[in-house]
Amino acid sequence: MTQLENLNRALAVIEASLEGDVDYEAAARAAGCSRYQLERMFPYLANVSLAEYVRRRKMTRAASDLLDRDARVIDVALRYGYDSPTAFARAFKRVHGVSPSEAKSEGVKLASYPRLVFTLSVKGEEPMDYKIVEMPAFRVVGVPSTGEWELEDAGEKAVQYWVDVEPQVDALLGLSDGEPAGLLGVQFCRDGAFDGYMACVATQAPCPDGMAVRVVPAATYAVFECTGDVSTAMGELWHRVLSEWLPSSGFSWESGSDVERYLSRDMHAADSRSELWLPVVRAE
């Protein structure tokens, strides 16, 4: 079964559980990935977060139910997993621009968000060159992230993280003596969940004070080249890999540690070179 088919199976699971609490873990299993990966992948494919998609679908169904004059707002709220009428009213107004009570009035305009279906789009753009690399586990030394990184604010936190790390980059590069060579940005994943981010290098050198040692597990990687300011070019590459390459590649995104490799000291130069290393397994 292809990644595209698995993603549509996940959408079917979500659709079937809109009433009550959506079973995100079951949806992730249907997609053949972890919940964390599904939530990361979804915005690249749908241009909206998974949480917002679910909210829109719930509120679309709720609006339809409220058109029944006998329907009570509290009953509809409970049907779609909201124990608090206030929370339901807030979510409803965010989607429709009116309160649930106002939605029952004749002539009120309501929004409708249909169920998504993922399809393969052939765009005829430049080919996506990649190579498959079998990588044994490797030791890294670097500067670990601190605090909680929620999916919704991870990008913003990553930007500030790199600003804070910049003064230590040359010291890190001086430790590099292994493969993959150069400065790395590793997003660790353990048991299908985010387990920290680290600017680091592959090395057997002793760990300096203020830094940390971790091991990136052995994995099969699909490696993609990137050219341009990483603050924009890398995000665009992620979008193409997850929306264009992965669904038709014959691979699935493995629940492992993602690696970005920065080959140019000035990561924000127009000709900066970098790589995306995506852990993959053959799709079943």
Automatic annotation (TrEMBL):
Coiled-coil ranges per UniProt: none
Residues covered by the HTH araC/xylS-type domain: 8-106
Record's keyword terms, sorted: DNA-binding, Transcription, Transcription regulation
Xref: Pfam families: Cass2, HTH_18
Single GO MF annotation: sequence-specific DNA binding
SUPFAM superfamilies membership: Homeodomain-like, Probable bacterial effector-binding domain
Tagged with keyword Ligase: no
Protein name in the entry: HTH araC/xylS-type domain-containing protein
Originating organism: Collinsella tanakaei YIT 12063
